[in-house]
Structure formats: C-alpha cells, structure tokens
C-alpha cells in the first residue's frame, strides 16, 4: 500500500485514471463540505475542482513523459515538473481567500486547505492512494479536535 513505484512500474489503464480523477474529486468534495459546513471561504466546488484538476494535471504530466519516451530515446522529460508548477497556482488561488482588515486576518486556514487539497490530488495521481486518504482522514480529525480546543479556549477567555 505504501510502496514506492519506479517509472517502469507506474503504468495505469484509463480505468484506473478515471478512478483516480473520481477519487480525488470525492476527497476534494469531502474537504470542501467540511469547510462549507463551517461557513468558511471557498466551498465544496472549489475544493473539488482544485483536487481533481491537480490530479488531472499530474496524470497528464506523468503519462506524457511515458508516451514521449516511447517515441524516442532522445527525449528527456521530468514527470513531476508540471506537477511542481501546480504549487504556484495553488498559492495564487490561496491568496484570493485571505482577507486582512486591520489586525484581523481571515482565510488562512482556507488557503492552507486549498494547498493541501492540491497535494491530495497530486498524491492520488502519482499512485499514493493510501497516503492521500490517510492524510485527508488525519487532517479532518485533527481539524475537528482543533476546533474543539479553540472553542474551549475561547469560552474560557469570555469568562
């Protein structure tokens, strides 16, 4: 489940790629639902699109390398170069949800979640299903624990 695949071992069918896209969209949907239920910026569709698009871009990048490598031995490509550029785009999208009003800053968690959900999409596309699912489950659980702790601390401060 957590083994690392070499380029020669990473060959997927279109069926598996569809499962990867659908799986990343579902995970993005679940994370977006969590944020939407708390009335936070960037809701269900945003997270779903970010996760699925990151997965798609990574799949295209990985499979383009394999496709063009079969055509000629002289073609050298880095399969994760395009995926690495996703990070810049995620930073741009994340910056759009951060708002500052005096000393009050909002949207930082939503921006971090957008960055995270992009990583989930990349992880699924790269074949790290278990790792991606565990990351989502862990962060959702810890976010709930964090909310509980913050609520308790806020209640103490109000007394």
From TrEMBL:
<protein>
    <submittedName>
        <fullName>MgtC/SapB family protein</fullName>
    </submittedName>
</protein>
<keyword id="KW-0812">Transmembrane</keyword>
<keyword id="KW-1133">Transmembrane helix</keyword>
<feature type="domain" description="MgtC/SapB/SrpB/YhiD N-terminal">
    <location>
        <begin position="24"/>
        <end position="150"/>
    </location>
</feature>
<dbReference type="GO" id="GO:0005886">
    <property type="term" value="C:plasma membrane"/>
</dbReference>
<dbReference type="InterPro" id="IPR003416">
    <property type="entry name" value="MgtC/SapB/SrpB/YhiD_fam"/>
</dbReference>
<feature type="transmembrane region" description="Helical">
    <location>
        <begin position="17"/>
        <end position="34"/>
    </location>
</feature>
<feature type="transmembrane region" description="Helical">
    <location>
        <begin position="111"/>
        <end position="143"/>
    </location>
</feature>
<dbReference type="Pfam" id="PF02308">
    <property type="entry name" value="MgtC"/>
</dbReference>
<keyword id="KW-0472">Membrane</keyword>
<keyword id="KW-1003">Cell membrane</keyword>
<feature type="transmembrane region" description="Helical">
    <location>
        <begin position="46"/>
        <end position="68"/>
    </location>
</feature>
<comment type="similarity">
    <text>Belongs to the MgtC/SapB family.</text>
</comment>
<dbReference type="InterPro" id="IPR049177">
    <property type="entry name" value="MgtC_SapB_SrpB_YhiD_N"/>
</dbReference>
<feature type="transmembrane region" description="Helical">
    <location>
        <begin position="80"/>
        <end position="99"/>
    </location>
</feature>
